[in-house]
Amino acid sequence: MARNPRIAFIGAGSTVFMKNIVGDVLQRPALSGATIALMDINPQRLEESAIVVNKLIATLGVKAKAETYSDQRKALAGADFVVVAFQIGGYEPCT
Question: Residue ranges of the domains in the chain?
Fold first, then answer.
């Protein structure tokens, strides 16, 4: 059996975007057991995204797990896939 993939999300503080993309990812059988490595420089926004991702995992009943990082190198370690999505120019509450 193949090991579950590790997917790093750099710029994970955009909670709405994270909810949408991680929800899509976790609905794919091949990715439903993935380790989701969330990384953001803003600890509060990172924690909010982690709460949402963990609720998605529970709601979907998948075996994925979420990890949080403020260090980009640690989040990227061992990643099979990397998603980079961050906003330049400051925080806009609509994200």
Answer: 6-84
Task: Specify the 3-state DSSP secondary structure of 15.
Answer: helix
- Give Cβ neighbours of residue 56 (< 8 Å, ≥ 6 apart): 19, 22, 23, 26
Are 85 and 9 in contact by the 8 Å Cβ rule? The answer is yes
Rounded CA separation 91/22 (Å):
21
> From 3.40.50.720, 3.40.50.150, 3.60.110.10, 3.30.830.10, which CATH number describes the 6-84 domain?
3.40.50.720
* Per-residue model confidence as pLDDT tens digits over 25-80: 999 999 999 999 999 999 999 999 999 999 999 999 999 999 999 999 999 999 99
